[in-house]
Design brief:
Blueprint lengths: L8 H16 L3 E7 L4 H13 L2 E5 L2 H8 L15 E6 L4 H12 L3 E8 L2 E3 L1 H8 L4 H41 L1
Antiparallel strand pairs: 1-3, 1-4, 2-3, 4-5
Amino acid sequence: MIGDFCVDRSRKEALVAELQKTLAETTLLVVTHQSGLTVREVTELRRNMRAEGASFHVTKNRLVKIALKGTKFESLNDAFTGPTAVAVSADPVAAARVACDFAKKNGKLTIVAGALDGKVLDVEGVQALARLPSLDALRGKIVGLLQVPAGKIVGVLSAPAGQLARVFGAYADTAQ
């Protein structure tokens, strides 16, 4: 995405426009420093990100700073120093979880900062966000909580009918 360092002006403008589009569609942005990651490691990280609905991009700081202007993530401008890369996702947890999990296993990736819908997060904030369940997992829990009472209601409502049927059955047996 933004990894091309020797590109002409029109290509740089296209990269900035592409990044601005990505930022507009993003809920979570995690800024990382990646130093010495091999191609295999970056490929693994990107695969893990895609599996969670997130993406990981090595960035050129000057172009990212231009793209950040006027976006909800503009306050992260100072975080873009050194060998940076960004993890982004529409899910408010996915990019943080994958980046933090990868950083735990591989010391070549460190979390620098993040922002959730424009609210700046420090490293601890990103790590706390990573520990939360995903949006889909939370939805599943809510559905599960809603189904339990519904099942109990069905049981309570069907119990009198079952008891009534047993009484009629017993009465029919005695009448014969």
